[in-house]
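Tokens as discussed.
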């Protein structure tokens, strides 16, 4: 489903480059690039990214980054199965993907390279899930983004408008969908103040004026992150 393509790309776009001390000995950049291409429609590179995660997990089953990326890939496969009407396959893929992403965050709760991907995927997955399933996904996604903002607090002001805008928009939109208009307004206001030139600023202004976030057909990260 296109929303998984978009959000996994957004997840990595938001994560800053990792130092050699933060990333275990696996080819993070290659996996990231292949997953971008795979979720954008390149089946060969998607398979290559998943295989790289699986090789890493075979050696190190508790590898946080491999778990969160593999779980994101399983979510993508679940979306494909649901589109085919194959609920029997989609359901287990969904559950396994969610379990892997959750395990990754439990293993590395302060890693931006782990927390951001889960939060980004869940915030968008909540748009398409039944209400009973959507609420906990949305709540977890918002908590992840709040934690990201906390982790980035000391240097958030130094980030570019694009990453600042995406994070603040995710929080504002997430709270709006949860029905918390007070927090939504606070984050939309901060979006306009801290990242007025970001691509999400017009959508933030629209919410502040109308209470509705306009759709953004075609908006995604693949234009910048090929």
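Sequence:
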């Amino acid at each position: 489903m296109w929303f998984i393509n978009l959000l996994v790309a957004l997840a990595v776009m938001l994560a800053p480059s990792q130092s050699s001390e933060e990333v275990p000995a696996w080819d993070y950049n290659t996996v990231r690039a292949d997953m971008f291409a795979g979720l954008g429609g390149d089946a060969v590179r998607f398979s290559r990214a998943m295989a790289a995660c699986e090789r890493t997990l075979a050696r190190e089953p508790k590898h946080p980054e491999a778990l969160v990326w593999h779980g994101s890939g399983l979510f993508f496969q679940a979306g494909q199965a649901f589109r085919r009407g194959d609920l029997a396959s989609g359901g287990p893929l969904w559950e396994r993907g969610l379990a892997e992403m959750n395990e990754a965050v439990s293993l590395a709760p302060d890693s931006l390279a782990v927390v951001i991907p889960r939060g980004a995927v869940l915030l968008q997955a909540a748009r398409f899930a039944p209400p009973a399933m959507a609420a906990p996904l949305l709540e977890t996604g918002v908590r992840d983004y709040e934690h990201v903002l906390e982790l980035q607090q000391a240097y958030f002001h130094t980030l570019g408008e694009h990453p600042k805008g995406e994070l603040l928009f995710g929080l504002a939109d997430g709270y709006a969908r949860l029905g918390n208009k007070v927090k939504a307004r606070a984050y939309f206001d901060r979006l306009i103040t801290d990242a007025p030139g970001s691509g999400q600023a017009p959508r933030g202004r629209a919410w502040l004026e109308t209470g509705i976030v306009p759709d953004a057909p075609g908006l995604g990260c693949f234009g910048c992150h090929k």
